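User: I'll paste a sequence; please echo it back and then give the predicted structure.

Assistant: Echoing your sequence first, then the prediction.
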Amino acid sequence: METDLLLMKHRLNIFAPFLGALFMVSALWGQETAQKIERFQVPEFDGVVGEQEWANTQKFLINYEIDPGNNTPSENLTEVFVSYSETHLYVGFIAYTDMKTLRSSIRNRDEAWNDDLVMFGIDTYGDGRYLVNFGANAEGNQVDMKFTADGNDDESYDINFESKASKQENAYHVELKIPFNVLQFKKALKYDWNILLYRSTYTGENRSQNLNIAIDRNNNCLPCQAVSTIHLEGIKSENRLLFTPNMVGSWSGGKVAGALSYGALDAGVGLSGLIDLNNTASLEYTINPDFSQVEADVSQVTVNNTFAVEFPERRPYFNEGNDMIASELNTVYTRAINQPLFSSKLISQGEKNRVYWLTAYDESSPYLVAGENESVLEQGGASYANILRYQRTFKGGSNVGFLTTNRFFTDGGSGNTFGLNALYRMKEKYAFTVEFSKSVIKEPEADWIDNNGLIKNKSIALDGESLKGDALALKVTRNTKHWNSEAFYEHYSPHYQTPLGFITRNSIKRVFLGHGYQHFFEKENTLRQLNVFTGSEVIHNYDGLKKYSTLGGELSMQLAGNIYMEFSKWLVLNEEFEGFNATNMPENNFFIRFSPSEKVNMRIFTSWGENIFYDNTPEVGKNFFLGSFNNFQLSPKWSVSPSIRYSKLGHLDGKNAFYEGYILRGNTNFQFNQNLSLRLVSEVNSFSEGAFVQTLLKWNPNPFTIFYIGGTNGYSYAEQIGDLRVDGVNLYFKFQYQFGL
């Protein structure tokens, strides 16, 4: 660390008269220069945490097991060292373990969550609003995420940093090199930043999660518990000026008169970028972006589902700021911005104030109408979109804020929401959340929705009507070492809509009460952790009709052998759908996760009971679902991930089925190194009587640079799986490279 120049001048004035000052200045200047070089001497970034190069750094231990143990001593100790230069933070980990049982393979970015890994979390503001986490496994494969005060942690969060690792005789080493300009913080001469250190490891075949602190289970705000600090002086954050041009192309063919016919090459270019305005604010923009995903979304079983299905956001442009726009009412769903020609995003993270402002011109906008028993989601026309979020933060993760979303269609019509929200933590164990939103809708006059239904005397079809609605969410939680309680109320009025959100059901008032108990056992026990939960939910519509009520409970256990099990049993006391009211329908669910070694990771979920068949003539039937999602590590570079989902709803007499089907999916991945991979994805969907095979060669050295080339064959079959017919072929490529000035 640099010595304060004022202190140096003060020393000169004390120790020498003017004639001797030249000598003293020369001597002290040489001494200070030596100190500066020594204190800013950074370790060699090679993945080896050498004793001498990290000798004078800040040191910490990860020595508390917090799961399945309850702040018990960590069996596998981890030493952590922190140093820094003017522009970068350096973190070194020595993770001791039995190297014969180490779980670590070469993987794509953010795919090492089941490995032995280490993470460094940092809160630059010290108020518990979030922790930005940087980490890697023993191969140096990166993981990153954001822990938030409300518990909605974001594993999709990406940050640009460097990592290297090495394997030693009784430990693996990880070194992280983190530029200060990927963090937002208020400028000062000196800094004391809160940190949280994490390691996921294995003791035998059992997964063990560990921290550098004894966790307080009375406080469910993990970022608020980051009390360890690192001290820094004389650092600077160089403002970024980043450009990310991309070139994309595709060549498609489809069946014409029984034969495949190919069209012309469809190619395009786009540009995204980021400009740091200062230490706390950045501006992002994108022009004609390619928002296609590298891999298709995993197909979902949507049969007998009357509401639209939500998919996760994976597009890098929407990465930063997701925690700021998250809400209990789901007012913002960034995938509602589908095909923007241009978009800009301003994010400011002040010491007490946070601002998120996104604007976009969307050439093809989804239009969602929520209802009491169903929702309608169709593709609409071009629109201008706006999201503005302000939040005032307080110590302990509390905050209060304002959120508005606006969408204006170019051919007429608009949708607006205006909302307030607050999160207040009291005595650590209590958390109070309140959120209110008002929507004002002017429907376009368009033929996007073909539905003649009504919602409270207003048509679902888009005929220029004006609609107003409101939504409210209230939640109280209480957390202690053994007991956890939650009370939740929400309502959505009949004409409430979220033009840039994802609310699929309105005209309801919902109350939920839940209470749980958790117990931790000694490490020698076969049973390591036990959780019991019971709850009840009641939903009424705005006419006072009871739409849904249920009562039940759940039991979960962490067992030796890295086995986790859940069982739940609920009784649906009543469910009303379009005038049909079913009563006393049982629901049973069972889940087991089993991973005795790195080579085998299996998850099986099944449910059975009774359910309504949602049709013009509703009827109760017997349902059965079986799903298995697995990963088998065949070698450090080669893995296969097969999955199956089977679903059936049969008549109560057992003679026939309302529906029956399955989705089979297989992912095979070969990792040449941590940046280059070849992936084969195949899927058969009996519900849609189709299948596809996708091959993808991908080079992805950082979150925002990606080159890939691939192809997808689509198939259909009429009666039996062996009779597959090619319906379409799509070849595509993308070259996207981020560079800075």
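The helical segments are 5-15, 18-39, 322-325. The longest strand covers residues 580-597.
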